[in-house]
Amino acid sequence: xxxxxxxxxxxxxxxxxxxxxxxxxxxxxxxxxxxxxxxxxxxxxxxxxxxxxxxxxxxxxxxxxxxxxxxxxxxxxxxxxxxxxxxxxxxxxxxxxxxxxxxxxxxxxxxxxxxxxxxxxxxxxxxxxxxxxxxxxxxxxxxxxxxxxxxxxxxxxxxxxxxxxxxxxxxxxxxxxxxxxxxxxxxxxxxxxxxxxxxxxxxxxxxxxxxxxxxxxxxxxxxxxxxxxxxxxxxxxxxxxxxxxxxxxxxxxxxxxxxxxxxxxxxxxxxxxxxxxxxxxxxxxxxxxxxxxxxxxxxxxxxxxxxxxxxxxxxxxxxxxxxxxxxxxxxx
Length: 332
What we know:
Blueprint: H1 2-13, E1 17-22, H2 28-44, E2 49-54, H3 60-65, E3 84-88, H4 100-105, E4 110-114, H5 120-125, E5 128-131, H6 138-149, H7 155-168, H8 177-188, H9 193-199, H10 206-218, E6 220-224, E7 227-233, H11 238-248, E8 252-259, E9 262-269, H12 271-277, H13 281-292, E10 296-299, E11 303-309, H14 312-331
Parallel strand pairs: 1-2, 1-3, 3-4, 4-5, 7-8
Antiparallel strand pairs: 6-7, 8-9, 9-11, 10-11
C-alpha cells in the first residue's frame, strides 16, 4: 500500500516536522488534498507537526474555500527545520517558484503525491514518488490513503476531498467510475453535495474576464488536419484563458505569458484530440517545452503547464513546431 511507504519514510527519519507544499496559485485540489493529508498524518502520527504552504499564495477560489474549511497555511515555511518535505499536486519543483532551490538543496527526504505524470527531474531528487494518472485528482489519491489505513474520515476532511475532486473533474464531467464511487462514499460520510458544489461557484473576477477576452482577441488559429489549434498570450490567468479558448471551439489551446524573464505556458485540449492522436500534452508537449526553455513542464493528457525562461513569441512558435511534428507522425 502506498501510504505504508510514506509512513515507512516518516518512521525511518523519526520525523517531528513535515512540510506539505503546494504549487504557486494553489487550486482547490492542491490545498484540499494537503489539508486532508495533514489530518490523516496527525491521526496516524499524533506527535508530528504538519504545516501546509503554497508558493506565491493560493487562488481566489481556494481562498473562498478556506472560509468553509479550517485550512491553515504558513506564509514563510522553515525548510531547515522540516524533517520531510511533501509535494502535493505538484510534479515539478519549478512550480514552487522561489522555493524550488530550497527544496533542491534540502537534506530532508522528498515525497511527491500527484495525479500528473511524474517528471524525470523530480524523480531524481525524490525519495518517494506516488504518481497516478488514472486518478482524477490528488484528493482522490489522498482519499485512497484513508481507506488503505482504515482511518475514519471527519466531516471537514470528507468535504475537502469532495471539493478537490469536484474542481479537478469540472464538476465530475471527466470523472471515471472509481471517482464516482469515491464521491458517493464521501457523500455517505456526510458531505452535502449540493451545498459543497455551490462553494465552487465563485463569480469570476474582472481581471480574469479581461484576460480571457484579450486571449480570444489575440488568438492565432491554425488548422492542422481535422484539428483547430489556438495560440495566444496574456500576462496572467493563462490556464483560464486556455480553457476559454477550448470552450470557444478550439481542439487545442496554448496560452503563454511572461513576467520579467519568467515564462508560463498553459495547454488544454479536448479529450477527442488525445484519444484520436495519442498526443499527451504533459508528456509529449509540455515536457520538451520545459526542457527547451530551461525550466520544467508536465501535466495530464489534456491539461498541462510549463515554467521556464523566455518570451511568448518564441514559446508559441516552439509549441506549434512540436505539435506539428507530432501531428505529422500520427497522421502518417
